[in-house]
Amino acid sequence: MKALLLTLLCAPAVAAAAGGEFFDDFSQGDLDALRTSGWVLREGTGHPGLPGSRFSPTQLSLGAGLLTLKLATDGTPANTTLAQLCGPRKFLVGTTTARVRLRDTPGSRDPIIQSFFLASPLKHDYDPDFSEVDFEYLPHGGWGEPETRLYGVSWHTVRIDPWQSFNQASILQGSFDGWQLLTVQVEATRTRHYVNGRLIGEHTGRNVPSQPMAISFNHWLAAGAVAGAPREYAFEVDWVLHTAGRTFSPKAMQARAAALRQQGVARRDTVPDSGLTSECNL
User: Fold this and answer.
1) Residue 7: inside a domain, yes or no?
2) Are 250 and 196 a contacting pair, CB within 8 Å?
3) Tens of pLDDT, residues 233-264
4) Closest to 82 (Cα-Cα) out of 105, 126, 113
5) Which of 12, 154, 190, 274 is deepest in the core (most CB within 10 A)?
6) Does a structural domain hold residue 278?
7) Which residues 6+ apart lie within 8 Å of 96 measured at CB?
8) Which domain holds residue 194?
9) What are the residues facing 235 on neighbouring strands?
10) Cα–Cα distance between 151 and 153 in angstroms, integer?
11) Residue 129, SS3?
12) Among positive and negative, which fits the CA dihedral 65, 266, 134, 217?
């Protein structure tokens, strides 16, 4: 029976590998090795950072097989430093899963956002080719609402300033402090978001991505922080896996990641290059 169970678990993983896959368990020794393996460490300003805040590679770190994304602030944009990491821009139809440790900070009301997403560049306001699917966790509330909540969103398009967005969102209220398995399936006519194997939303129509996207993680601050003493927040990423062109369950994706690790594979990328630049923004 045990041998049969192992066969069933490994069967979808073998199929996924045949279709092309991207896997990283963030066991690189330093940030230079992270860059060499194809990741972009964001620098400078821009959305979603508050005007006056900045992104810096110093807010990213590696250790114990984890990627840590830190956010430092005193509540003012000028003293706010954010983190973002982006992969190559070549992912569209398929399944993407990340194991992340989201974190609450009891007592804080800073509107921080801990995010795992795939996105293409926004070339101009209301760009019809803009594509994004994301998970965004607001442990202290924000965006005009005080509640702690987790979003799964599929995007049609957006205008940044003044803000106007067109998307389809699924929302889970309450704390998600701790390790979470986040999965998004992108098909030709729909997307599905899963949290720990639970389907939280299915999105269709113009919200379905149409352009290759970059896998990304970021940690940023929305408007509404109160100026005061310096403080710092962090969340971690254990691994990320994408299977190109195939739809797999969160359980199958988790089994595949475990199998790769058991085989001693820390990183694999057999997804064909798109020739597109990862701009590492949004």
Assistant:
1) no
2) yes
3) 999 999 999 999 999 999 999 999 999 999 99
4) 113
5) 154
6) no
7) 118, 183, 184, 186, 215, 240, 241, 242, 243
8) 15-269
9) 69
10) 6
11) coil
12) positive
